[in-house]
Design a protein that fits this description.
The chain has 5 helices and 3 strands; from the N terminus they run ααααββαβ. It is mainly alpha-helical. The chain folds into 3 domains: 54 residues; 37 residues; 48 residues, no CATH class. Strands 1-2-3 form a 3-stranded antiparallel β-sheet, with no helix packed on it. Helix 2 runs antiparallel to helix 3. InterPro entries: DUF599.
Length: 158
C-alpha cells in the first residue's frame, strides 16, 4: 500500500477512535461521574448553589456577581478564539502574500481626496494626483440638488 492510500486507512481509524472515546466518556459520566472532570465540576457547582441558596440575603450579590463574571470571561474567551482563528486563517490561506501587507501598511496615497467647488459653474472638481472612481468616470459632477448658489456659498472644500 502506497503513501497515497494511507488516508483511506487513517481517516476512518481516527474517526473510530474519536467516537469510541466519546462513547466511553458518556458512559463514564452517567455511571461514575466522580471519575471525570465534568462530573467533579458539576458536583462542585451543585454544592456552590446550595451554599448560595442557604442565605440569599447575605449571598445574593455574590451569586449575581459570580455569574456575571463567568459570562464576561466566556465572552472574552470566545472573542479571543474567533480573533485568533481568523488570524490563523488569514496567514494560512494560499492567497496571502507579503506584498499585501506592505501595500496596506506603507500606503502614501491620500485616503480622503480633496474636492474643490467652482462657484461660477456650481460644479465640483477633484484635485489632480488623487485617485478616485468618480473622477476617472466623470471629472465634473454635480452632487448638490438644484443650482442654489446662496444656500451653499460658504462651501469651498468638502
Amino acid at each position: 500500500m502506497g503513501n497515497e492510500h494511507l488516508e483511506y486507512v487513517f481517516v476512518p481509524l481516527g474517526l473510530l477512535v474519536f467516537f469510541l472515546y466519546h462513547m466511553w466518556l458518556l458512559f463514564t459520566i452517567l455511571r461514575e461521574p466522580h471519575r471525570t472532570v465534568i462530573g467533579l465540576n458539576a458536583e462542585s457547582r451543585h454544592q456552590w448553589v446550595q451554599a448560595m441558596m442557604s442565605d440569599p440575603f447575605k449571598n445574593g450579590v455574590l451569586a449575581v456577581q459570580t455569574i456575571r463574571n463567568n459570562i464576561m470571561a466566556s465572552t472574552l474567551l470566545a472573542t479571543t478564539a474567533i480573533t485568533l482563528s481568523s488570524l490563523i486563517g488569514i496567514f494560512a490561506s494560499s492567497s496571502w502574500s507579503s506584498d499585501d501587507t506592505s501595500s496596506i501598511l506603507h500606503s502614501t496615497s491620500s485616503i480622503k481626496p480633496r474636492i474643490t467647488r467652482d462657484l461660477l459653474s456650481d460644479s465640483f472638481t477633484k484635485e489632480s494626483g488623487t485617485i478616485d472612481v468618480e473622477s476617472a468616470v466623470e471629472p465634473h459632477y454635480y452632487p448638490l440638488a438644484g443650482n442654489n448658489l446662496t444656500q451653499n456659498a460658504a462651501v469651498d472644500n468638502v
